[in-house]
């Protein structure tokens, strides 16, 4: 019952604080690609993998008072910070979630910047394609980000290290 | 003459209740409509279980796909043609992608995909790129044409303007389904002035924008999306049917895993249960097949499968109460215990359904680059995000209206008021 909501609360609890909706999207997507059982569906949108289900679920959790959302103006746009509330803690206490390696992965992902996570999630989105096609695809769909070969190499390395952590 | 440029000797038209006529002149479009994979869409309803609430909603993904094609055809032939930002060489690609964008939808796809962890977009891609009639037709244009069509539908094609025609916050897909669903459900909301919207559309490098003078038509479209979501797509009775459908599929899968011996072997479901669905298996599935099994399973020994199927086939749906998870999750835990005690398995008969379970998206102004917003084009060439210009859109966009309902079988509970006294009290029956 409300297990999918509990999983998102659990992920934010493990991360401490998540700054940015985009970052939250990428964190859950990457965790899902590491085989953690999140149910939200992701599709490729203008800015990369995005889940409307996740957006709605986070809105619901804020409405329920389980998540705290702080909106702050940053340059030309708004940025949102998410933390767990006391009510969220209590809810989580009644809905134990078993994902033992998740904390380790999310803590690490949360320290990466949004640009890098956008690249990592895009590489993962095309993980059914061979390496050279993935690189070509990134230059096509992420033209404006101008990712370098070194950054793409770093993304591949990072994915491998995360996979190691996820199965330890 | 090259296949891509081949026209039919005489234009074909499909009579359509929404667009009046759907015009086909390109040989490739006509050939695609005739493929068996496209014809399968006649057997998949556009609105899944909604027909159990709005009896007119029997229209199919076939109707809708033709409608999306027709809207894109009107845009590229009548609005974009001749504009410097638009490359007319992308015309046929746009038309094929519009026609085929829903090709991979399965029967009652929302529940079906959730239970079996499938994604219709993967099957759309597999049908376009696999050993299929659709692939044969597309490959006649060029060897890489099927891949391009699949990329447009997957939103990973390089030319984002082409992608945005069928997938953006105001696209041909939504413009067709809002009007079509309104027509077939018989509701009066859902209508907007599409002709006006098409007239004020302008192609830009990465997206379609709208002349500022057309703002009120776009406002109407946004309102229509908002109303249709709450009045049709998230209708609580339809959600009840969806809950039961999901539970039927879960139960059948569970029984199979437990080695249960079905009286009526679920042959079409075996690969789904095993999680190894081939394209060939997938293309054999449609709603007729599902309903056939549900009817046969009414005769099964398993009381839960039998009961759920009977409820779905005979429209004896679960009742619901409003549910506030923040205040009532402890009550839910108690109800679960009471259901268990009463011999009514809460796994199948006590279900919370949330608005996030059916994410028909609302308009969002695009915070932090989450989604590309709708842009209005001012006379001086400046682009302005819609909600900054329109008070109406600002009032409903990005607002959190969420909803949760608790579904239960009222008939089973009320059968024995005395024994179920506490349940009745908690559910306030």
TrEMBL record, chain A:
Organism domain of life: Bacteria
Protein name per its UniProtKB record: YwgA family protein
Organism (species): Mesobacillus foraminis
UniProtKB/TrEMBL annotation, chain B:
Sections of the chain in a coiled coil: none
Classification via SUPFAM superfamilies: HD-domain/PDEase-like
Gene Ontology MF term list: dGTPase activity
GO biological process: dGTP catabolic process
HD domain residues: 61-178
Name of this protein: HD domain-containing protein
Source species: Mesobacillus foraminis
């Amino acid at each position: 019952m409300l297990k999918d909501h509990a999983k998102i609360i659990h992920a934010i609890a493990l991360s401490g604080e998540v700054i940015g909706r985009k970052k939250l999207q990428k964190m859950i997507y990457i965790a899902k690609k590491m085989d953690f059982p999140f149910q939200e569906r992701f599709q490729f949108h203008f800015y990369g993998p995005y889940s409307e289900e996740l957006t709605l679920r986070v809105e619901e959790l804020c409405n329920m008072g389980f998540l705290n959302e702080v909106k702050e103006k940053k340059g030309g746009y708004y940025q949102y910070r998410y933390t767990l509330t006391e009510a969220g803690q209590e809810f989580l206490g009644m809905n134990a979630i078993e994902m033992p390696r998740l904390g380790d992965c999310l803590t690490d992902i949360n320290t990466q910047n949004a640009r890098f996570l956008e690249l990592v999630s895009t590489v993962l989105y095309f993980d059914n394609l061979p390496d050279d096609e993935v690189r070509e695809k990134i230059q096509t769909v992420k033209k404006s980000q101008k990712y370098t070969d070194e950054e793409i190499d770093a993304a591949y390395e990072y994915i491998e290290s995360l996979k190691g952590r996820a199965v330890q | 003459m090259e296949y891509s440029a081949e026209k039919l000797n005489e234009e074909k038209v499909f009579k359509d209740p929404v667009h009046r006529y759907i015009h086909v002149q390109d040989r490739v479009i006509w050939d695609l409509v005739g493929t068996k994979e496209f014809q399968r869409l006649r057997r998949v309803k556009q609105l899944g279980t909604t027909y159990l609430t709005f009896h007119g909603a029997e229209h199919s993904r076939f109707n809708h796909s033709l409608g999306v094609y027709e809207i894109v055809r009107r845009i590229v032939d009548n609005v974009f043609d001749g504009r410097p930002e638009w490359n007319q060489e992308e015309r046929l690609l746009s038309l094929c992608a519009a026609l085929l964008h829903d090709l991979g939808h399965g029967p009652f796809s929302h529940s079906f995909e959730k239970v079996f962890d499938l994604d219709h977009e993967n099957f759309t891609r597999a049908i376009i790129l696999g050993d299929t009639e659709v692939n044969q037709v597309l490959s006649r244009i060029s060897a890489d044409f099927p891949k391009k069509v699949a990329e447009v539908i997957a939103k990973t094609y390089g030319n984002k303007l082409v992608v945005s025609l069928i997938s953006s916050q105001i696209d041909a897909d939504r413009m067709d389904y809002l009007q079509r669903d309104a027509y077939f459900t018989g509701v009066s909301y859902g209508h907007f002035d599409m002709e006006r919207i098409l007239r004020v559309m302008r192609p830009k490098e990465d997206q379609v924008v709208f002349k500022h003078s057309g703002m009120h038509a776009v406002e109407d479209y946004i309102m229509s999306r908002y109303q249709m979501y709450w009045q049709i797509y998230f209708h609580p009775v339809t959600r009840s049917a969806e809950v039961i459908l999901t539970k039927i599929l879960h139960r059948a899968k569970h029984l199979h895993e437990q080695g249960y011996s079905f009286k009526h072997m679920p042959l079409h479901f075996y690969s789904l249960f095993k999680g190894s669905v081939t394209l060939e298996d997938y293309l054999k599935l449609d709603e007729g097949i599902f309903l056939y099994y549900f009817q046969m399973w009414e005769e099964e020994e398993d009381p839960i499968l039998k009961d759920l199927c009977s409820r779905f086939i005979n429209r004896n749906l679960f009742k619901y109460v409003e549910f506030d998870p923040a205040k009532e999750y402890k009550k839910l835990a108690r109800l679960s215990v009471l259901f268990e005690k009463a011999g009514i398995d809460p796994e199948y008969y006590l279900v919370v359904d949330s608005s996030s379970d059916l994410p028909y998206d609302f308009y969002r102004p695009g915070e932090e680059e989450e989604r590309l917003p709708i842009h209005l084009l001012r006379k001086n060439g400046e682009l302005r995000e819609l909600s900054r210009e329109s008070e109406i859109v600002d009032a409903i966009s990005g607002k959190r209206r969420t909803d949760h309902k608790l579904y239960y079988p009222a008939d089973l509970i009320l059968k024995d008021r005395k024994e179920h006294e506490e349940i009745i009290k908690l559910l306030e029956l």
